[in-house]
Amino acid sequence: LGPKAATASVFFDPACYGDQESRSGAVGGCESRIREAISRNPQLARSFFKLALLDGLSFDSVSKDTPGGPDGSIIPVILGMNAADNAELALMQDACKVVIEISKQRNKKDIKTVTLLDAVTIPDAIALGGTAAIESIGGPILSVQVGLS
User: Fold this and answer.
1) Most buried residue among 24, 31, 110, 148 by CB atoms closer than 10 A?
2) How far is the C-alpha of 91 from the C-alpha of 79, rounded, in Å?
3) Terminus-to-terminus CA distance in the chain, angstroms?
């Protein structure tokens, strides 16, 4: 008996970021902000990793209406929890706030010229945060496929 075949499906719009330069700028800016947050508070590295992991593991192949997966749905769940006596949850909430701020800042840079080509969605920021966390502790450089969610 071996492992069951994966039933996940991926939908990716290659035109989401337009040309490679726009995509690289959006992704690079997001990664830079996450690295800055981790350098200010190294404990956030594990929180960014956990966010990416939990968001991705929310996939439900049975439900066709709301399959979950890396869609940013972990943010309201984490922010809705009471972290009064839980330092780890408080760190995860801090990471959530960084992700939201990155998405807001990138998307309002210049309201007249910002398009979806320049936008970093919350799910993108979560995934990029997970890879930045791994890299920040000396792990391998990982690539992330980003796009609209």
Assistant:
1) 31
2) 11
3) 35
Alpha-carbon distance of 110 to 33, in angstroms, equals 18
Q: Which residues contact 84 (CB under 8 A, 6 or more apart)?
A: none
Triad 122, 33, 94: Cα angle to 5°: 65
- pLDDT, mean over the chain: 78
Distant-in-sequence, close-in-space partners of 147: CB < 8 Å, separation ≥ 6 = 11, 12, 13, 14, 16, 17, 124
* Banded model confidence at residue 3, pLDDT cuts 50, 70, 90: confident
Q: Is the pLDDT of residue 140 over 70?
A: yes
Encode pLDDT of 38-69 as tens digits: 999 999 999 999 999 998 887 776 766 666 67
Return the number of other C-beta atoms located less than 10 Å from residue 46's C-beta. 17
Which residues, 6 or more positions from 5, have their beta carbon under 8 angstroms from its beta carbon?
none
Alpha-carbon torsion angle 92, 66, 116, 55, nearest 10 = 20
pTM of the model: 0.72
45 three-state secondary structure: helix
Would you state the structure tokens that stand for residue 52, as one six-digit string?
């990416």
